[in-house]
Amino acid sequence: MRAGAKMKGRTAAKGLSDWRTRAARLARRIGGGFVLVLLLAGLALWWAARWTPDRALYPIQGVTISADNGKVHWGSIKAAGADFAYVMATDGADGIDPQYARNAAQARVVGVQVGAIHRYSPLPPVVWLDYDDRCPDRPTRALLLSELATFLAQIEAHTGKRSVIAPGPAFEADYRVTAGIARTTWLRRDFFEPDYGAHPWAMWQANDYVRLTGAGGTVGWNVLRPEGQE
Length: 230
Known about the structure:
The protein has 230 residues and is α/β, with parallel strands linked by helices. 40% of the residues lie in helices and 20% in strands.
C-alpha cells in the first residue's frame, strides 16, 4: 500500500512539474510573439513616418502644414526636401489659422513656395473637402455643388487665380465633386496612387504620417504630377 501510494505521489508530482514546464514554454512563446508584434508595429510606424514617393518619378514634392504642427522650423522643412508647402489659412467658422501669416512668411524666406488652404463650414468642408464630425447633417449633391461654386467664385475673385479642390475619397464617392466642378484636383491616398476622381489628379497627398524635424506632429507629404504624365 505504501509503495503504491508513493508511486501515485511521484506520478502526480511529475504531472504537476510537466504542466508547469509546458505553461512556462507557452508563456515564453506568447511573450515572444507579443514582443515580435510590437517590433513589427514599431518598424511600420518608423517606415510610415519617413516614406515619401520616389523623387525620380515625382521630382516636385511638398508638405501640408497647419497650426497643429506648432512652431515650424522652415529651414528644416526645406532641408527635408520640400519644394512647396500648402498652409492652412482658414477653417470655416473657426476663422483664420493663427499660425498662417508666420508660416507663410518664413517659408518664403527659405525658398519654399507657399499656397493657402481654405475650409468652408458648417456643412461638409469645401475646397479641402472632408466630412466634419461636428456637423452630422449632409446636404444634397445639388446644394453642395451650388454652395461650392459660390465659395470658389468668392475665393477666385479675391485671389485672381483658379482654385484647386481637394476631396477625400469618401466625400468624392458620395458627391462626385470632380465630375460636377471643373477644377484642378488634389487627391489623397496614403502610400498608393489615388484611384478615384473623374479625371487625373494634379497633386497627390501620398503620406499623411510623415514626421519631420522642424514640425510638431505629422505633416502631409505631397507630390505634383509630372508634365505629360497621364
